[in-house]
Amino acid sequence: DAGITQSPRYKITETGRQVTLMCHQTWSHSYMFWYRQDLGHGLRLIYYSAAADITDKGEVPDGYVVSRSKTENFPLTLESATRSQTSVYFCASWSVQETQYFGPGTRLLVL
Amino acid sequence: SQQGEEDPQALSIQEGENATMNCSYKTSINNLQWYRQNSGRGLVHLILIRSNEREKHSGRLRVTLDTSKKSSSLLITASRAADTASYFCATDTGRRALTFGSGTRLQVQP
Fold first, then answer.
1. CA-CA distance, A77 to B40, in Å (whole number)?
2. 3-class SS at B46?
3. Which end of chain A is more exposed for a tag (fewer CB within 10 A), N or C?
C-alpha cells in the first residue's frame, strides 16, 4: 500500500534502553521528518532529512539519533531512553505540493 | 519554542454553526498550513496559503493570512459532528520543516 507507515505503533521500554522507531514511505519523497507530540501540545521537530545520507537537527534533537541510508526509510533511535522521552512520535514526508504527509504515530512509554 | 500560538485552545459549538480559529506566528514565512488531527491519529493536511496570498477557500474551509500582523485564521462553515478534532497551524520558513502551533480542540455537538 502506498503511504507512510511507522512501527511499532506502541512501545513500552525502560529507562536506559535503546529504542528504534521505524518509518517507511512509498512515494520516494526526498524530505522526511521526525516530530514528537506531548500530551496537549503541538508537534516539535526532532530531526529531518533532505535526502539519503543528509540529515539535520530540529528543535529538540538531544538524546536522538537518525540515519537515512535509503530514501524510503528514516529510523529514529533513542540511544538511552529517559522518562522525558515518553511521547507520541510522528514521521512525515514532504510532497512537491509543499505539504507533509504524516504516519499514524508511535506511542512510546518509558518507565 | 512554538512558532505559532493558537486561539482559542478549545472551542465547543453546535452542528451547523461556524467555527473560527486563530493562529499567530513570530518569523517571516513562505507559507502557512492548517492540519487536522483526530483523537489518537496522525495529522491530515487541510489547506496551504502562501505568504503572498491573503485568502483561500477549500470546500467549507476559509483561510486568511495577514503577514503584517503575522496571523492567520481558519473558518469552518456549517460545522458537522465529524469536524470534531484538534486543528493546528504550521509555518514553513523555507526549509520545508514545519513549526506547529499548540492547537485548537474543536468539539461540535450534534
1. 22
2. strand
3. N
Chain B residues within 8 A of A48 when measuring between CB atoms? 96-97
**Strands of the sheet with B61-66, listed across from one edge:** B5-7, B19-24, B71-76, B61-66, B55-58
pLDDT of B3 > 90? The answer is no
Whole-angstrom Cα distance, residue B40 to residue A37? Answer: 11
Q: Do residues A32 and A74 make contact, with C-beta atoms less than 8 angstroms apart? A: yes
| B101 vs A contacts (CB less than 8 Å) | 42
User: Letter for the amino acid at B17?
Assistant: E
Closest-CA residue of B relative to A33 is: B97
> What single string gives the DSSP state of each residue in A9-73?
SEEEE-TT--EEEEEEESS--S-EEEEEE-TTS-EEEEEEEEETTEEEE-SS-TTEEE--SSTTB
Biggest alpha carbon–alpha carbon distance for chain B: 41
Confidence band, pLDDT 50/70/90 cuts, at residue A64: very high
